[in-house]
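Notes from hallway chat w/ T.B., transcribed later so I don't forget. T.B. wanted the structure written out for a chain they're using in a teaching module, and asked if we could keep both sequence and structure tokens in one place. Agreed to drop them here.
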Amino acid sequence: MFDRWYGRRLAAALGKPFVHLVFGARQTGKSTLIRSLLPASSTIVDLSSPAERSQHLASPADFVRLCEALPAGRSVFVDEVQTVPSIFDAVQHLYDRDKRRLRFVLCGSSARKLRATGANLLPGRSFLHRLFPLTLVERPAPVPAGESARLPVELPTLPAMPQDARLFPAADLEERLAYGDLPGVVTAAAEDRAELLRAYATVYLEEEIRREALVKDWGAFVRFLRLAAAESGKLVNYAAVSREAGISQPTVKSHYQLLEDMFVGFRAQAYTNSVRKNLLSTPKFVFFDLGVRHAAAGLRPSADIVAVDPGSFIEQWVGIELWKRLQYLREGALHHLRTKDGAEIDWVVEHRGKIIPIEVKWTERPTAADARHLVTLCEEKPRQAPHGYVVCRCSRPLRLHERVTALPWWAL
């Protein structure tokens, strides 16, 4: 059992007399973490089991009767709660009768059905938690001996894990780019990781989507999924995806929303608060994990894939890492910037009143030329954007310009 960064925060929150909603993609470790924090005597309703799910769908009142028979002080953990939305109404009924008699923890891996049915998410009665794949504080990087990095402007950073925390095994950059950061994948034997990711991209997505009747034409969705995965990290081109997948643009947009609702991807909106008038407003769409991205694109995750397009993959990995931190911190936003004449900044972080522009390069020897677009934005907004970074594979931080530092990926 390894420790998760969010574990201590969740443990502290569970002691408060509210209903706790825990959402996140499959295999991010939600159920494992929750079970480790709840008492062994807790009552578990596992709706991923077809028999248990069918029972509660057929007879919604059974959940209320089950809880009424439990002794006071018992914890009730409902897994895959989105499959039976009526559970939320039942929990509200029980909670409103006596807020302290039972402690409810509801866990889900999709918000689509809840959104479609207008499910009651217990406003005013619940805490919402999110769990993501591993971050650098949970799965450390092999830092060169004697090296450290002090940043002119702090990037969004998660507080360090306690000294006695059991961290996941350290990994180099190529391993992260090839297999991603899902807990169950990084702790599996190396020879099993590709197969686990392939199963995730096919079995899980097919099971989740078909079970909830979210897509009418499965073949068209599979074509869309491969295209969306192949284009991960790029500007979304709805017309091109529509043409290649053979589906309408409204359907393409609906499918992208479905991936977001299932927590397997996110949009980075364009940064438009700039003096330049020719900015593009198209968002980027990024899969939440590179290993899943490779498998969803129909590829077998391996180091060979990384060698094909390392620049794109390190750019996505940096964006994913920053996005996870911002989501955990619940402050700030992740953007990108591109002009119609081709000037581009890979990531623009809004955090605590500052703008932090970030370029990502595969190079080990960054130059001032890599920083030119960062310098332009920093000079446009000297107070908001005092400093930018080129994240790359250099061995130690390097000053490229008075406003730009090259940063090793491990020091992100």
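Follow-up for T.B.: The chain is about 40% helix and 15% strand. Might be a good example for the class.
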